[in-house]
Design the sequence.
């Protein structure tokens, strides 16, 4: 007998809850407990309000569904929709006489174009902010490490190496 091939891991249950719901509820409970116990300098009524807010957000996030989508699925769909390049461009480009066919009075034959060499390739990649930030951070770390090595860090590393 072969094992089933179409298994949806979201249907697995533990104590009647899906693993996603358990993870969200455990995180919310940990945050609520941290607010209650960790913020001892705050008044008790404010800590209780924070605990109730954490519990409410956790319960809504774990159990709320709209049209079969969870809260994070719905949020991801909204973000993907607004991130698309053709966001609401369909109706803006459509002109009034889109369905009408127009025929030119006399069709002229297009002149044969000589074949030229293919155009040079253009750079279509533009670095994103995260990529630029990561590279700037890496360069600054390398610069700091180099300055540390020049100002005596190499001697310290040599002493540590010989001590091993």
Sequence:
């Amino acid at each position: 007998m072969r094992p089933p091939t179409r298994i949806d891991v979201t249907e697995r249950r533990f104590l009647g809850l899906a693993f996603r719901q358990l993870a969200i509820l455990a995180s919310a409970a940990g945050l609520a407990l941290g607010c209650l116990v960790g913020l001892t300098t705050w008044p008790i009524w404010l800590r209780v309000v924070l605990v109730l807010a954490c519990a409410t957000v956790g319960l809504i996030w774990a159990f709320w569904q709209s049209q079969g989508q969870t809260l994070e699925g719905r949020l991801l769909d909204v973000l993907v929709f607004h991130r698309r390049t053709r966001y609401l461009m369909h109706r803006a480009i459509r002109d009034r006489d889109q369905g009408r066919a127009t025929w030119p009075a006399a069709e002229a034959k297009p002149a044969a174009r000589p074949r030229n060499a293919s155009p040079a390739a253009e750079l279509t990649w533009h670095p994103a902010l995260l990529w630029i930030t990561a590279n700037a951070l890496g360069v600054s770390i390398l610069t700091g490490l180099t300055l540390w090595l020049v100002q005596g860090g190499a001697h310290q590393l040599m002493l540590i190496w010989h001590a091993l």
Q: What stands out?
A: The helical segments are 19-38, 44-63, 71-83, 90-93, 129-163.
